[in-house]
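Is this the right way to post structure tokens for a design question? Let me know if I should format differently. Anyway, here goes:
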């Protein structure tokens, strides 16, 4: 996967390919359900007896390493009542393999797959591939490239193509989010989004500041007032001829390229990672590109309002009153609650499409992070019951789980303003829900809001999620729309 820098350096890559025979000179991993599945050409009688004994003794994953042959044998014996948890264990097992391989500094591996379930193999390879990601563009030691060759009767070329596209999309999302603002300014980000769209066959329109002003997107313009960089509003569309839906689905991703908090200034501790405040937008454009790459027959539109939130003498101030795209006036009491302002303009704009469903995804509130930690996504919405169930199922399928919160009217009470239609912040408690009530004001269609403030960016690696950007949300949305295409 290429970077966008002019010196033509490259990011980490993983290439998964199917092979017709095993090369005895290369490292080999054998995936089995039971020892008798192992081909006799791989082990001596004594080695086979050892593997068989281990199989009967151990309860979970067993690693048998014959260094002189460069062979590792993996079998998995822990199964859960919930199928999705078993699949996740296969991903984590794949990640354990990746960790072992990186310790011995090998980046070329063969997989001999003697399992009988394609989904298990897919998950194992997914965990391997996601686990080796590194953001190494700025490191002297060079680039981390990894090749996985698969020998399998059940893992066909379509699986290979799909998993490669999934991994590349997640990597691309991580690369974008991990870039420092010194490189990925708002203007540069607009170029990147346009390039991604064009490379993947998406229709793309980038609205500049003049056009944004003509549309009276007061939230986006207000947040941008403190910046020397102009805002943009990107409209990306995947509309296949065989789309199963008559009305489009709309994704909206928050694109704050760097968030200082404005006059409601963050502390240094809370600001150092704020390059990741555009995670929702990176997820939106890479998920759309993945749908296009894998020809998913669902019409989806992506909206990305983007700006940084910086501070100068022209920046909006607490107490300002602004007018949004739909004419709503907002009393801005906290300039660090900027994400909901730019999302509100996009939510209003989405009404023009008469959408089947709108999903917005954003690193919106510390409240969601405090409530749920890094392990799950805050979800909320209205007129969405069946879609929320489908999205939760996809969350389990890819282990990017959702927890749904209530959107009761009482939570909007603290947003009442004496001088405007609504305030941009309310009571301290239940902050993520109150922020959702603010967003709800700008919707009149089925809508789901996903707050990814917790799982979007990790301080330390966790399972197959590397430190830094996680890309959580890309596989979730892809699986959701893939299943819609299948069901229809």
């Amino acid at each position: 996967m290429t970077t966008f820098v002019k010196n033509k350096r490259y990011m980490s890559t993983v290439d998964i390919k199917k092979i017709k025979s095993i090369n005895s000179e290369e490292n080999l991993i054998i995936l089995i359900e039971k020892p008798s599945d192992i081909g006799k050409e791989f082990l001596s009688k004594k080695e086979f007896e050892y593997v068989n004994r281990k199989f009967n003794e151990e309860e979970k994953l067993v690693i048998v390493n014959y260094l002189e042959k460069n062979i590792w044998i993996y079998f998995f014996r822990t199964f859960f009542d919930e199928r999705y948890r078993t699949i996740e264990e296969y991903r984590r097992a794949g990640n354990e393999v990746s960790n072992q391989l990186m310790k011995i500094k090998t980046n070329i591996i063969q997989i001999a797959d003697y399992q009988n379930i394609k989904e298990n193999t897919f998950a194992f390879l997914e965990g391997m591939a996601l686990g080796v990601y590194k953001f190494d563009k700025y490191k002297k030691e060079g680039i981390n490239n990894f090749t996985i060759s698969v020998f399998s009767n059940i893992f066909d070329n379509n699986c290979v193509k799909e998993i490669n596209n999934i991994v590349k999309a997640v990597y691309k999302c991580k690369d974008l989010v991990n870039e420092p603002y010194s490189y990925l300014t708002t203007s540069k980000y607009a170029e990147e989004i346009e390039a991604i769209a064009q490379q993947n066959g998406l229709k793309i329109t980038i609205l500049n500041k003049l056009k944004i002003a003509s549309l009276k997107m007061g939230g986006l313009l207000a947040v941008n007032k403190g910046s020397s960089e102009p805002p943009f509003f990107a409209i990306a569309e995947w509309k296949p001829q065989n789309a199963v839906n008559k009305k489009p689905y709309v994704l909206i991703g928050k694109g704050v390229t760097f968030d200082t908090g404005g006059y409601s200034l963050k502390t240094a501790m809370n600001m150092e990672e704020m390059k990741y405040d555009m995670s929702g937008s990176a997820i939106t454009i890479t998920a759309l590109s993945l749908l296009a790459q894998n020809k998913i027959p669902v019409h989806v539109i992506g909206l990305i309002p983007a700006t940084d939130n910086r501070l100068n003498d022209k920046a909006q101030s607490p107490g300002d009153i602004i007018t949004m795209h739909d004419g709503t006036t907002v009393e801005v009491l906290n300039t660090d609650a900027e994400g909901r302002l730019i999302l509100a303009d996009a939510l209003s704009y989405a009404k023009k499409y008469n959408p089947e469903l709108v999903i917005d995804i954003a690193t919106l509130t510390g409240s969601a992070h405090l409530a749920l930690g890094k392990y799950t996504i805050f979800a909320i919405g209205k007129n969405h019951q069946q879609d929320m169930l489908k999205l939760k199922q996809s969350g389990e399928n890819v282990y990017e789980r959702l927890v749904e919160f209530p959107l009761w009217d009482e939570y909007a009470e603290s947003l009442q303003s004496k001088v405007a239609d609504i305030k941009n912040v309310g009571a301290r408690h239940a902050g993520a829900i109150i922020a959702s009530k603010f967003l709800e004001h700008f919707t009149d269609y089925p809508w789901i809001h996903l707050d990814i403030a917790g799982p979007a960016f990790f301080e330390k690696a966790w399972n197959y999620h590397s430190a830094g950007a996680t890309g959580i949300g890309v596989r979730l949305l892809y699986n959701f729309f893939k299943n819609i295409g299948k069901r229809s």
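Format looks fine. Someone answered above. Worth noting: The domain at 172-487 is CATH 3.40.630.10 (Aminopeptidase). The CA atoms of residues 250 and 350 lie 7 Å apart.
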